[in-house]
Amino acid sequence: MDMGSGEARLSIDCGSAGTQAVLAWADGSAHVLSFDGNPPLHTASYRPANGQATGQPAAPIPRPRHPVEDATAGGAGGDLLELAASPLRRVAAEAERVVGQPVRDVRVVVPAGWGPRRRTWMRQVAHRAGLPQPRLVEAPVAVAEYLLTTGVRVPVGAFLVVCDVGAGAEVTVLLRGPAGFEVLATLADAAAGGTAVDHALADALIGASAGEAQGASRASVAHSVRVAKEALAIHPAVTVPIPDRPPVVANSAMLDEAVRPVAWRVAQLTQETVAAAELTIGDLAGIYCVGGSAQLPHLAAAIAEHTGAAPIVVPQPALVAARGAADVGAVDTGTVERVEVPVPPVRRAAAIAVPGFASLALIWQCLLTAEEHGVLGVYYSVSVNWGEFTMAAVMALLACLAAGTVLGSLIAARSPTPGTRTEGGRVSVGILAAVSLGAAIAGLYAVVTSQYFGMPVGPYLKWALWPIAPVSVMAVAMAVVAARQWRSPHGGWSALLAAPTGSIVAATLGMGLIQYSLTADRWPDRILWIDIAGRVGGLFLGVAVVMAVVTPLMFRLILAAPLAVICAAIVSRRAAGMLGVIYAIAVATWWATRLWSRILRPAPPARTAPPTGPVRADMSPGGGG
Of the candidates 163, 186, 188, 160, which has an alpha carbon nearest to the alpha carbon of residue 174? Predict the structure, then answer.
């Protein structure tokens, strides 16, 4: 291959039955290493003890994923470490042959549940094999990275489950955060994988026996049973040779009986892991099965029946972890990370423009129609419609929040901080910037109005800032959620931050009519129409409050009539401020509802009905015999 060794990455997945290895390069190309014509490097399961003949298997060989307790001790322990390193040494030699010189970037796949002692063991094995210090990659993280490279959509903030079924089973719940995948919970069971199926199938072939003879019999037919298990996936029956005995016939019914209890246990393990992560099946973006035993019959059906969600068996499941580990942390030198600022669509532009123009219209009318008293006398005062003033501040904040994602993209495009370039970082920074800008505009309204009339600024700041405080607090909570990637709202953040346009238009029109009725010149021939305009404004304002608080159309129709009549009845100079505060509370209620229903406690998607009929019978724990 015409590629430099400095660019090559070697990833190794040391399973119980075999070792998979992949070479990858910066241009995205990859090469699966083969040994004796096959990708997996098979490892022996037993070694002679006390100089016994090879036909008398005794002690298990310490493979890289299965350290023996005294393997790192002196004496015989050195031999055990050497035995464990032998498959990695052969992988290193084959990788060097392909690349042309030793590979410096090495990744080794390890289970997510491994602690420091086992990770230290793996590093010692790699060192004994002549490899450089490896980067240990957790198997489910490697799988998730592989899914991304194959086009599977896993948005930031989504949860997924990886069922790694090899010799045993390890089920892990992952969260995709802004910096990569994070393990939330992982559970393993060594008796819920291919080894348990092999033992059950071997017992069915040679007959259950007791004591040492059973272990010797199992070991003598281990390879034949594995070959038969793979063949039964496509053939109804196969002949299995057994040393010192006549060959026997294995059929698919025998394999089914061996697989059922294992499949049921993996399904149970999946449900337990999701519960350990404090999630439900409805929170998951998907369940993916990988590993050498992921294609066992009944496994996917058992998980679907037990959880209510159909899993996906990834193609070439035995290779997935090794291929994914090669891409973890890889830098694509051919592309430069850029943050594009998309042009807002018409709907998003309207969500920004409508409250923005509404705010300007309200503050303009408030300034021009305020009544000044005692201009030439000692007792100077100004009558301001505090309700209209409050609503102008609320509309300004809503306009800024609707522009939150655009503000975030603009800031991220010019920010040197990598965290702001992620989706969560952009949204979080944008929301915080929107809250700050909205509060600044509301404060500016207060200062400009007080200076315009020559009045103390305190009352104006009170009516401008206090009503928007609840909305600001909830927006900051949304910013925290976006930064932490706990949830990604359905429809995206832009849709979540856009306030209901219909409510804004109705409220602005209603308060405008109320202010007109309070300040218009009351000519005798216009008094009736001016009063009617004020009552109509109250009706509009009541409808706007209902539109902000209630979503279902039927409830809106039921509540709008009485509330609109009440608002119309209390329209007066003294009640105008109260009407404005009522609308500010309605907007805060709308935001609280969005925060709860879209982020904190989103409604789970409709679940697929679990399989019925024969599948349910197959999943019985006692069905495995």
Answer: 160
d(CA 521, CA 221): 104
Question: Which uninterrupted H or E stretch holds 443?
Answer: helix 423-453
Question: Cα 539–545–546 angle (5° rounding)?
Answer: 90
Bridge partners (DSSP) listed for residue 432: none
Give the number of C-alpha atoms closer than 13 A to the C-alpha of residue 250, restricted to the C-beta side. 33
**Which of 270-284 are b and which e, b meaning 16 or more Cβ less than 10 Å from the residue's Cβ?**
bbebbeebebebebb
Rounded distance between C-alpha atoms, residue 515 and residue 519, angstroms: 6
The answer to whether 317 touches 20, Cβ cutoff 8 Å, is: no
Percent of the chain with pLDDT over 70: 78
Lowest mean pLDDT among 11-15, 69-73, 351-355: 69-73
Q: Are strands 18-24 and 9-14 parallel, antiparallel or unpaired?
A: antiparallel
pTM over 0.85: no
Tell me the helix, strand and coil percentages in the chain, rounded to 5: 55, 15, 30
d(Cα 63, Cα 60) in Å, to the nearest integer?
Answer: 9
SS3 239: strand
Q: Are strands 371-373 and 381-383 parallel, antiparallel or unpaired?
A: antiparallel
Written as six digits, the tokens of 73 are 């001790």
For residue 113, count other CB atoms closer than 10 A to its CB: 16
Cα–Cα distance list, 511 to 386, 531, 542, 577 (Å)? 11, 14, 10, 10
Rounded mean pLDDT, 423-428: 76
* Mean pLDDT along residues 22-47: 71
Rounded Cα–Cα distance for residues 151 and 154 (Å):
9
Q: How far apart are the C-alpha atoms of 258 and 299, rounded to whole Å?
A: 12
Q: Which value, to the nearest 10 degrees, does the dihedral of the CA atoms of residues 445, 446, 449, 452 take?
A: -110
Q: Let me know the angle formed at the C-alpha of 21 by 16 and 26, rounded to the nearest 5 degrees.
A: 150
Confidence of residue 495 (pLDDT cuts 50, 70, 90): confident
Q: What is the CA radius of gyration of the chain?
A: 35
Query: What is the model's pLDDT at position 251?
Result: 79
Q: Report the alpha-carbon distance of residue 133 to residue 153 in Å, rounded.
A: 33
Contact call for residues 583 and 545 (beta carbons, < 8 A): yes
Report the alpha-carbon distance of residue 33 to residue 39 in Å, rounded.
6
* CA angle (43 as vertex; 73, 268 as ends), nearest 5: 90
Q: What is the pLDDT of residue 35?
A: 77
CA distance 298 to 602: 32
pLDDT for 465 equals: 95
Kindly report the CA angle at 146 between 143 and 150, in degrees rounded to 5?
140
Give the tens place of pLDDT for each residue, 206-254. 764 433 444 445 555 666 777 777 766 677 777 777 777 777 787 778 8
Which of helix, strand or coil describes residue 53? coil
